[in-house]
Amino acid sequence: MAQLNAQQSPGEIVVTINSQERSLPAEMNLIQLIELLKLEPRYLAIELNGQVISRKLHATTRLTEGDVLEVVTLVGGG
């Protein structure tokens, strides 16, 4: 059985997003994460454990304990 760390409650997992640990509800998928972070899905890329995840797979890609994500947003301008 996995041990809970100080930041974690039952039913939660700890993942690292852009080098910062964060507690999230277990069974969260990438679309739910994008909504939680209030990001625009059309203008971002997500790398999960070293692999870029296609936008088509965001709904079916679930986060698990210890995942490492890099979320990159695109910004327009001149």
From TrEMBL:
It comes from the Bacteria. It comes from Planctopirus hydrillae. InterPro entries: Beta-grasp_dom_sf, Mopterin_synth/thiamin_S_b, Thi_S, ThiS/MoaD-like. Gene3D superfamilies: 3.10.20.30. This is Thiamine biosynthesis protein ThiS. CDD domains: Ubl_ThiS.
